[in-house]
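Note on ligand handling. Small-molecule inputs were canonicalized before submission; formal charges were left as drawn, and no protonation-state enumeration was performed. Where a ligand contained multiple stereocentres, the stereochemistry in the source SMILES was retained. For zinc ion, this procedure yielded the string shown in the input block below.
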Amino acid sequence: MPRRLTEANVLEVWEGGLGGTPAARSLLLASVAAPPGQDVADLPLSAVNALLLELRRGAFGDALPCAADCPQCGDSLDVTVGAEELRPCAVGSDAGAGPSPATATLTTDGMTVTYRALTGRDVRAVDATTPRARRSLLRRCVVHVSPPPVDDDLSEEVLEQVARLLPELDPGADTVLVLNCPQCAHRWEAALDIGDHLWTEVSGYARKLLHEVHSLARAYGWSEADVLSISPARRQFYLEASAG
Ligand SMILES: [Zn+2]
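Structure output:
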């Protein structure tokens, strides 16, 4: 399997992600771009994002169209972001870029807490719609507590301290856009989920292909495999010819 999205694999990838959670879809997409045999679920989120950006660039180019509403005046913004602006910045730091999540320790409340960066496996394992999702995620980051807490559980305060420190451990885990409203000059930061963004594009691509298969199968009696074996340029010709 090539480490990019092609007409030959996009339908399979799309089908595999249907019905999955956003976290599962992101990992499925990242796995397409990963070296053979690598389990992307165990990568820190910055590395998953880097794979997603790489996959996206190969299939749809460098420019990411994004839409957002200004929180101040409500105006709708259509901006195009360069993939470079979203690339996790790991220069001068060994955090985030490695194949396994970095760990660090913090001392609080007389305890030494060892924690690690979030992985895709963590995000996939936690149901984001439940009220305790945040706590469950943070709890998964804690790998060791010394001495162990009495009831084997950690207080909200300790987990929130871990939450504040996590971005230092994996700076590219969250991708954030800085937006400027042309109407009211308000400036704000908006989170961009690369996996969600790419999934929407993959769905659109897959559906467009299926529509082409449908039209040409109906016009010429070709099978799905027949249609997909024709180059996009020739397919376009036949689509136009059969429509006119
Ligand atoms: Zn505005």
